[in-house]
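Long-time lurker, finally posting.

We've been working with ABC-type antimicrobial peptide transport system, permease component (Parapedobacter koreensis) and I want a structural starting point before designing mutants. I don't trust myself to interpret raw outputs, so I'm hoping someone here can both generate the structure tokens and explain anything notable. Sequence follows.
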Amino acid sequence: MIKNYFKTAFRQLWRNKFRSLLTMLGLAIGISAALVISLIVYYEFSFDTFLPDKERIYRVVIDANFNGVEGHSVGVPAPLGNAIPTELTGVERTVPVFQFQGDATAQVRVEGDQSSEPRTFKKQRQVVFTNNDYFQLLAYDWIGGEPSATVGQPYTVVLTESRAGLYFPTLSPIEVIGKQLTYNDLTVTVSGIVRDLDKPTDFSGKEFISLATIDASPLKDNFMMDVWNDWMAYSQLYIKLEADHTAAAIQTQLNTLYRSHNTASGKDITLTLQPLWDIHFNPHYPSVGGRIAEKSTLYGLLTAAAFLLLLGCINFINLTTAQASQRAKEIGIRKTLGSSKTQLIQQFLGETVLITSIATVFSILLVPLILHLFATHIPPGLGADFMGQPGYLVLLSLLVLTVGFLSGCYPALVLSRYRPTETLKNQVSSRTGQSRQATIRQTLTVSQFTVAQFFILATFIVTQQINYSLDADMGFDKEAVIKFDTPRDQEQKRTALLHTIQSLSGVELASSGFLAPADQGMSFTNVSYHNGKEELKPTTQIRWGDENYLNVYRIELLAGRNVLPGDSTKELLVNEQFTKAIGFQRPEEALGVSLNWNGRTVPIVGVMKDFHHQSTRALISPLLFERNSGSTFHVRLKPNRDGQSWSDALTQIQKAYGQAFPGEEFNYQFVDEMVAQFYEREQATAGLLAWAMSLSILISCLGLLGLAMYTVNARTKEIGIRKVLGATVTSIVRLLSKDVVKLVLIAIVIASPIAWWAMNQWLEDFAYRIEIQWWMFVGAGLAAVVIALLTVGGQAIRAAMANPVDSLRDE
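Top reply, 14 upvotes:
Generated this for you. Predicted structure of ABC-type antimicrobial peptide transport system, permease component:
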């Protein structure tokens, strides 16, 4: 029986090759998109799910509130990790994780032996200081050394198998034990080798220096191991609770412990236990060098995948029911010979599952190509091999069965209902065009184009907002300006380098300071103004640089003057928003006003025109500027007239940097590119929407093409008669196209208000945003109509130009 089902299915596929190709192509596109999207989502939600007792693992983070300004940090006071085991109950494991300061990288020197020279690896990442509990928490597999005997000793390091192979490529893991490595100025001995974690995780360490090394070395002061009232992002802390204790109870104990050691500012800070499952998704607590996945984006991707799959299923239903009359006699004969309705349903569902399986196999082959094409949207570490995960294979099987059932259920029910007497008398085909199946096909076609129209509108509006944000007047000139960091503890060399750079032929102006006017980071300061009645404390950001900083970025002064050269802060600049926040309507009114800042009384000598200090998502807030040189250089290059000027200037700057700081790596960034990075999330969204839009239009057009072919074939004799009676080609094309245009217009009417509402919700994230205009909907609607007409136009013209004798010959 099953063998006959498959035989019949293959015969049908071969007999209707083009229709089968359209059906499978529509399904394959939807399934390919669903496979890649589900792969991304499954991967993101798999982070750290392999850890034993994962529900009892938490990260300690900080929630702060200073004068109404909220802040969050993954960094905690360094001594907290040492205090928890002795002062708290209910904690099974305490795992401090420290990274190197600065850019969280280290220069690693591998000592040579008699047959090799020493080798140096610059800017090595994923080097951490931690304790033995770290390896117990993550259940590492040891292939060299013993954790209890090695991790607790100072001046030792445990390497992952990949790093051991990098540093000592000719040695086995056992032979690496006892070798020495130097991290910056810290020499340690390899005491253990562990296998690399092969599952998605936010624990990214590859080299683990024993935590005891910090206390036994000069690093103790650098890491502030005895300081309770300060913290840094490089000091993180994880804990694992005992089975019978709750997070709320431990968090209460934790804050009591913290405030007992930090009586000065502890009242403004709350230590919070962040669950392990939240670490990969919470944007308030980004780790140094870590990556945050947005659940809203993932859910949006799943929605897009569901729509694309639905479009593929609609395609199948439309094309199958449109061809129903061609199988009517087959069904009549089968029923006459004794086939039951159940057997027919099984036959047609089997055909659907077969088509779906073929489409799925084709889609699986396309996955590596799609991952390559959309590499910018694919999470790092995700490859096609991840599809071999048992959980994902189960998901894939369910996908095939679900799509097969949804696609084949309705056609199977429709076809199995035909009565033998009607089908054998050829009465089905005469009624098909007016049957309710035709209405359902029209409804499904409208549904397809509604989805496609929504994606067209969404893509257009998102792109418009991104372009608006990128081209918006930021209040400063970001073009042709680069910024780069220099070592913080070498002020004399920095001063000399600044003069050298300023003298270069390709440099217009150079300045030293810290953050650019708009930067990835934020820096707040406490400042107040007493107006005689009350003390005002606006939430204020701060920027600082030397006297050339404003000129490098061409920031306009509305009143007063720029800061003067000097070694200490004796005067401040503020922006327009600050003057309004302290009660002045005109900028010049604030000149000479004294502010209470850092325990000193400092006058306002200038008012800057407002500029964006974050992306256009945020409102411009009060800001002050102090004169203070820093370790970040800001350099405006001269106009690039010949295409080579900037390249030559950058080469000269790099050479000067190398002479000032030998051995240090020179990394620069154009400020306009940095500002563009503010909108990476939106650009990724636009790219994915464009992808979904293209696929939805393609699938819809495939279905429309199949229906157009069916309509033309069904109306061949009608068209012949019309031509004999004098109908022109234009009138026949108009006749065959008007129904399609009507369906597309209905889809536009349905999709437009939905898209308007959804895009308004999305635009609410932007303080400075475009307005959704009527012409956007008109443009998107015209695009949909043109696409539909191009799809059916070829079939309509071919039918209209056919010789009517051929179509009427059988009459």
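Before you design anything, note these points.
Residues 436-471 form the longest helix (36 residues).
Residues 325 and 432 are 7 Å apart (CA to CA).
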